[in-house]
């Protein structure tokens, strides 16, 4: 007999972004391709009972963790199913694990096994919520979801709300406040797609890309998801975050935008001679002024920044021109890349090849009073081609850089391992703004940079059949 509570919940159509992940699942139902998993390491004088209470309340609030999907004649649909609300799993691995094993090693293996398990969107629960105690003053909070419901900002919203609920459980203020219902985002997205603004945004994109570079297309279903990724986390100069902040202030930019543009400049260092430029793909949170600012969901968009360079153009001049382009992209950034693909004539089973891609994650870890907390991104879904990921706290502290690629992009990977960090350091140095960008790009590379083993998950796609649109 169907659950009457579930039956009363409305079914909603999937967003364009979600349809892309549904299609991916249908092509690769036996692969854990788009699992999203974070681990928050908490050390200190934690009130364990308060955190358990907070996480249980969080599971009730974060509706996206309880999504259910079905397919039918009208296409795939989604529903918030109270029966899918994840139950908190608590394990004190100091006592549950093998006495001769390390509790944290046991916890890491548990998380790795969970990430490696495929998620069947038609019948499996999407989310897992664990609290693993691995020491007298050390816990691992594990959250696993699927990209069809969550992006990086959505996970950060959940983490911040957990910290607020923890503060409330200990008699403090719960800031930020409650997460809003998932349906509010779906309704807002439907209104936007039916609005004149959507049509205006589409017209801007058509004009913007009319004379730009050809955008490579990936034919879905032909990827090789069994290959091992190339991945490394290069050491950054200790002075780089401070130099980046100074250079950003001088350029009247936020440090995330300066770092994004510098990475884009380096990726486009060998521009085609026809003057069309090169497309560098950038995730865009797409939440400014939206109800999604307080709703965990898959909202992030991916935008192509067309990078060009003029003869003898200084870094300052290039940054000013490119920052203006970046602002224009964001002004029209709510227009979905999936719609942009359809506008370019791409059909079912095709999408743009998002490579190279620069991803900035300027998110503070959750704060638990009396404790230190550190976020680890264990899985963030599959990537294509070549990717640069930069993460730091909102003020730029704790800056880290990851370079990863599939084997087909090995040449770019090797070049990035030796050339990218020296270029960033040169470009943030005193006086660099008036130096020609071409000269900064041509500077010396590092002499040695060993590769590090792949991070979890250790598979990346080799692009299937690539075309141009």
Automatic annotation (TrEMBL):
- Span of domain Condensation: 14-358
Q: Which GO terms describe its molecular function?
A: 2,3-dihydroxybenzoate-serine ligase activity; phosphopantetheine binding
Q: Which Pfam families match?
A: Condensation (PF00668)
Check the record and name the InterPro entries matching this protein: CAT-like_dom_sf, Condensation_dom
User: What is one term from the GO cellular component aspect held by the record?
Assistant: enterobactin synthetase complex
Query: What's an example Gene Ontology biological process for this entry?
Result: amino acid activation for nonribosomal peptide biosynthetic process
Give the matching PANTHER family: FATTY ACID SYNTHASE, NONRIBOSOMAL PEPTIDE SYNTHETASE
Q: What is this protein called?
A: Condensation protein
């Amino acid at each position: 007999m169907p659950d009457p509570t579930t039956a009363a919940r409305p079914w909603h159509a999937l967003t364009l972004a979600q349809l892309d992940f549904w299609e991916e699942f249908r092509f690769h139902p036996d692969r854990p391709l788009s699992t999203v998993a974070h681990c928050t390491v908490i050390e200190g004088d934690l009130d364990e009972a308060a955190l358990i209470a907070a996480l249980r309340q969080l599971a009730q609030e974060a509706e996206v963790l309880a999504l259910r999907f079905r397919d039918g004649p009208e296409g795939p649909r989604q529903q918030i199913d109270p029966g899918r609300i994840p139950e908190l799993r608590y394990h004190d691995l100091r006592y549950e694990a093998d006495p001769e094993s390390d509790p944290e090693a046991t916890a890491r293996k548990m998380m790795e096994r969970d990430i490696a398990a495929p998620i069947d969107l038609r019948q499996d629960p999407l989310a897992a919520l664990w609290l693993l105690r691995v020491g007298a003053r050390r816990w691992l909070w594990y959250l696993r979801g699927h990209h069809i419901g969550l992006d990086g900002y959505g996970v950060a919203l959940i983490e911040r709300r957990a910290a607020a609920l923890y503060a409330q459980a200990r008699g403090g203020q719960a800031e930020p406040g409650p997460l809003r219902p998932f349906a509010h985002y779906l309704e807002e997205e439907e209104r936007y797609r039916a609005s004149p603004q959507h049509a205006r945004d589409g017209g801007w994109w058509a004009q913007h890309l009319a004379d730009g570079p050809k955008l490579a297309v990936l034919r879905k279903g032909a990827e090789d998801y069994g290959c091992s990724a190339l991945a490394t986390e290069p050491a950054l100069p200790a002075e780089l975050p401070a130099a980046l902040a100074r250079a950003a202030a001088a350029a009247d930019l936020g440090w995330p935008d300066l770092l994004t543009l510098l990475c884009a400049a380096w990726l486009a260092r060998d521009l085609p001679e026809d003057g069309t430029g090169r497309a560098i793909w950038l995730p865009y949170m797409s939440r400014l002024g939206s109800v999604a600012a307080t709703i965990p969901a898959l909202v992030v968009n991916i935008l192509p920044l067309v990078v060009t360079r003029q003869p003898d153009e200084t870094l300052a001049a290039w940054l000013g021109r490119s920052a203006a382009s970046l602002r224009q992209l964001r002004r029209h950034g709510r227009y979905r890349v999936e719609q942009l693909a359809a506008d370019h004539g791409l059909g079912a089973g095709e999408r743009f090849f998002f490579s190279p891609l620069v991803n900035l994650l300027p998110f503070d870890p959750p704060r638990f009073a009396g404790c230190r907390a550190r976020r680890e991104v264990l899985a963030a879904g599959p990537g294509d081609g070549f990717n640069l990921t930069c993460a730091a706290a909102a003020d730029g502290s704790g800056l880290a850089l990851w370079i990863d690629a599939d084997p087909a992009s090995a040449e770019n990977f090797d070049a990035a391992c030796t050339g990218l960090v020296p270029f960033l350091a040169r470009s943030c140095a005193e006086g660099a703004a008036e130096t020609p960008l071409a000269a900064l790009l041509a500077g010396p590379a590092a002499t040695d940079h060993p590769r590090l083993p792949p991070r979890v998950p250790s598979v990346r796609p080799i692009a299937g059949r690539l075309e141009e649109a």
